[in-house]
Recover the amino acids of this structure.
């Protein structure tokens, strides 16, 4: 029996890489679509993901599903799916600001939308969080421009800039900026701040685990006792944040915070959710920055103070730093963020067909 071909593009979005698919090229029925996505990624419990397009790393084991939006205020819908490395499972509960950066380029490259002129603005509805982000980037002849002089840490060289303007991120998944109702909680005797400003994150002090915060990701990933303690806290915090049983979910992320070393505002080591990230996620950086702004925060005193209604913050991570701009709402509650602005880049790497067994899907029943 022949295999079924599914059109795809592989795009580097920010400091991640993923497989981008049109929703109309996938099965309409959710359970069958779930199976097809696992075959596309090779996400059947093999940590190598050798029988699919997954990159055997959380940063390269990602999926973007894109469709034309039915909303009047948006152009396209974007659903993010994380293929959990080494697990026979997918997770569509979080969002991904890195893969989001490539959605506008994919929408143009696939012919889903059209744009004329030297600049495109694509309004994206993030279905995972129910929030909107506007992507602004250069175009030429109706196609994205990829070459440019913008540099982001975690990516070699430079590329054309993509400006990501996020709207109303607070409580994206948990329903509240402080999902537990507190600026400071305690689990297993460790003080934490649980925040959701686009991404549910649990911020902890690195020093509470006998760490400086400058350890390499490989060293932290080799520390089984640390990972055991973090996972115990994550399970309790996830329930307290209203996320239920998070044992098989990619959220909340765990972020170890320490004082900045290289002129930034804070230093981070992020686990997504059980593997230490070589950098930091886009929305994870927004949430971590926000966590330091609350009075009584478990990590607030570790951050260099920043003043004003528009706060420019540099979030340090293992491979450099991430610049975050938080526009505060002067009429809102403490640490109420109206908009977040971020700089990303993206590049189309490949396009073609990925094949799945016809016994899994014969190509029928799609939109």
């Amino acid at each position: 029996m022949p295999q079924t071909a599914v059109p795809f593009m592989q795009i580097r979005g920010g400091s991640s890489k993923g497989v981008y698919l049109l929703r109309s090229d996938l099965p309409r029925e959710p359970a069958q679509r779930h199976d097809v996505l696992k075959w596309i990624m090779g996400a059947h419990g093999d940590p190598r993901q050798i029988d699919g397009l997954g990159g055997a790393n959380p940063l390269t084991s990602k999926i973007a599903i894109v469709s034309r939006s039915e909303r009047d205020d948006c152009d396209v819908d974007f659903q993010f799916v994380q293929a959990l490395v080494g697990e026979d499972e997918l997770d569509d509960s979080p969002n991904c600001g890195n893969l989001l950066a490539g959605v506008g380029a994919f929408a143009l490259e696939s012919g889903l939308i059209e744009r004329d002129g030297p600049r495109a603005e694509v309004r994206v509805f993030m279905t995972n969080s129910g929030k909107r982000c506007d992507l602004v980037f250069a175009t030429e002849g109706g196609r994205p421009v990829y070459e440019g002089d913008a540099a982001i840490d975690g990516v070699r060289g430079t590329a054309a800039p993509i400006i990501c303007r996020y709207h109303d991120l607070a409580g994206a998944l948990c329903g509240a900026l402080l999902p537990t109702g507190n600026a400071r909680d305690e689990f297993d005797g460790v003080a934490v701040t649980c925040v959701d400003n686009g991404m549910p994150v649990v911020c902890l002090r690195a020093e509470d685990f006998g760490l400086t915060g400058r350890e390499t990701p490989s060293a932290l990933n080799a520390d089984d006792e640390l990972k055991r303690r973090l996972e115990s806290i994550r399970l309790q915090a996830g329930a307290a944040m209203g996320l239920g049983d998070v044992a098989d979910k990619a959220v909340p992320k765990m972020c170890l915070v320490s004082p900045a070393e290289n002129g930034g505002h804070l230093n981070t080591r992020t686990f997504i959710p059980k593997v230490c990230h070589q950098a930091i996620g886009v929305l994870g950086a927004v949430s971590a920055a926000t966590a330091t702004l609350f009075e009584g925060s478990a990590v607030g005193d570790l951050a260099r103070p920043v003043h004003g209604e528009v706060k420019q913050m540099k979030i340090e991570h293992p491979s450099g730093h991430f610049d975050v701009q938080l526009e505060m709402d002067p009429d809102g509650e403490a640490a109420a963020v109206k908009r977040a602005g971020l700089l990303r880049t993206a590049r189309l790497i490949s396009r073609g067909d990925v094949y799945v067994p016809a016994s899994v899907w014969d190509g029928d029943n799609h939109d």
User: Anything to note?
Assistant: Residues 3 and 358 are 5 Å apart (CA to CA). The longest strand covers residues 346-356. The radius of gyration is 20 Å. The chain has a mean pLDDT of 94.
